[in-house]
Amino acid sequence: MTKHPRIWLWSIMLVPWLSVPFLGKKSIRRFFAASLFITLMIRLESYIAEKRKWWWFYERLFPKARGETPLLWGQYLIGSMWILKYTYGHFFKYLVVNFFTDLFFIFPFSDFLKKLGVFSYVRLSRPQVMIIFSVKSLLLYGFQLVKENISFANGIRLKGKN
Question: Of 80, 115, 142, 157, which has the maximum CB count within 10 A?
């Protein structure tokens, strides 16, 4: 395919950031915490995945960085904000969008990364990966739900004290 998989990894990490200005400041403020939370959770998950050899990254952007770095700090962080922006408050719509996004990653995109010599599944089947992705999508939505309920409750308390 290409002799330069690192160029693809840089693109995977940086191109999503070009869309950030189109999210709008309000959406960034509203959804960044949940997106950062799930990104950090996946960062922790990557330690377990490496130990148990769930998947493997053959190519890294930086020698000491984890292989997931471009995916996490590009597509996943920014993509989570976009998905929340257009689906939050409509749980069924959120589940459907996440299902198809995850399906895209698990099948054609991971195959593409494998052809590049970047990534492959080792001890997890694709249905198992889908289950893990589904749990993470529920955590993302749940975090946002809790965050907004706490913000709403604090707003009521602050208004009541004035």
Answer: 80
